[in-house]
Every structure is written in C-alpha cells, then in structure tokens.
Design a protein that fits this description.
The protein is built from three helices and seven strands, in the order αβββββββαα. The protein is of the alpha+beta class. It has one domain (about 1-110). Strand 4 and strand 5 form a beta hairpin.
C-alpha cells in the first residue's frame, strides 16, 4: 500500500514537471515568429511579427499572457521582462531589429505612452 502511494505521488509530480516544461516551451516558441533580416536595414525577414493588438495594456506598458510566463514590455524604457509565477525577471531592451520588424514603439504610442527608446 505504501509503495502504491509513493508511485502515485511520483507520477503526479512527474506529470506536473512535464506540463511546466511543455508550457515554457510553448511560451518560448511564441516569443519571436520571424526569421531573417538580421543585418541593417533589417529587410527580407519572413514570418509573422508580434501582434501587439492581442496583448493587454498595463499601467507601465503591454503584457502578452502565456501558459507559464508572461512577456512584459515597459513602454517608457523599452525593457522586456518575463513574469513567472509573480516573479518578474528583467531580460533586455529591444534590439534595433526588433524595433524595425515588430514595431513596439508604434504600438506603445497607439496605447498612449511616450516611449523613450
């Protein structure tokens, strides 16, 4: 009986870890769906740029909700952060390619922010 209980709890724990990893993989895979155009003037790229209309407006910028991690954009500084279970992890500011391809500055202006990036 004790062995069945331990195996059951182990299986539940393994399933939880597996679902967490799958959720992170799905979130990371949806981060940038474009390829190419890595050299200035950042033309010739393929794929789908970020749809900022699908993101939520926050007091400081925009948020794209994921399964495990949320992508946060500060529309004043251009800082990209990730939020996992309430913990915010600063990542980096937008690259020149990201500004040209995904156009976050324009999306921030449409939402009433004054970007300094």
């Amino acid at each position: 009986m004790k062995r069945i209980g331990i195996l059951s709890l182990s299986a539940i724990g393994l399933l939880c870890v597996l679902l967490f990893v799958v959720g992170l993989a799905l979130d990371a895979g949806g981060f940038d769906n474009t390829e190419g155009g890595y050299e200035p003037p950042y033309q010739g790229w393929t794929g789908t740029p970020t749809d900022w209309n699908a993101s939520d407006t926050t007091p400081t910028g925009m948020a794209r909700r994921g399964y495990i991690a949320n992508l946060l954009v500060d529309c004043t500084t251009g800082m990209i952060s990730f939020e996992v279970y309430g913990q915010t992890i600063a990542f980096r500011t937008f690259s020149a390619r990201a500004l040209a391809v995904h156009q976050p500055r324009e999306a921030c202006i449409q939402r009433g922010f004054s970007p300094a990036f």
